[in-house]
Amino acid sequence: MKKIILLVFISLMFSNIGYAKATKAKVLERYEIKIKPMDTEVVVIVCIQGYKFIHTGGGERNMIQFFEQVAHGKHGNPQPAKC
């Protein structure tokens, strides 16, 4: 019984591998920022599926989505920035 439960658990854990769809990113802007004399940080603004993202390529790779304030009434609502 333990082997069957383990087999079901392992098969469910690995069942979603390979279903991600590759997408292409269009580079909008690229910046190289010097931090130290020998150290450079690369910042790239890209368009993925019609939305803007910022990608940093240093020691830690981060991708953050751009948002913009849409003015409706007293307070604006943040919406994903389109490119």
Structural account:
With 83 residues, the chain is mainly beta. It has one domain (20-80). It is 14% helix and 49% strand. It has one helix spanning 2-13; strands spanning 26-36, 39-48, 51-57, 61-65, 67-70, 77-80. The strands form two sheets. A four-stranded antiparallel beta sheet has the order 1-2-3-4, with no helix packed on it. The chain has a two-stranded antiparallel sheet with strand order 5-6. The longest helix is centred in the first third of the chain and has 12 residues, at 2-13. It starts with a helix and ends with a strand. The mean pLDDT is 82.
Which tags fit this structure?
83 residues, mainly beta, four-stranded antiparallel beta sheet
Compute the number of strand runs. Answer: 6
Radius of gyration: 21 Å
How many structural units, i.e. domains? Answer: 1
- Unreliable segments of 5+ consecutive residues: none
Note the gap between the termini: 54 Å
String of helices and strands: HEEEEEE
Residue share in β-strands: over 45%
**Order of strands across the main sheet:** 1-2-3-4
Envelope shape: extended
For this structure, the quaternary state is: single chain
Overall mean pLDDT score?
A: 82
- Summing up helix and strand content along with how strands pair, one would put the structural category as mainly beta
What share of the residues lie within helices? 10-25%
| Sheet of most strands | 4 strands, antiparallel
Q: If helices are DSSP runs of H or I spanning 4 or more residues, what is the number of helices?
A: 1
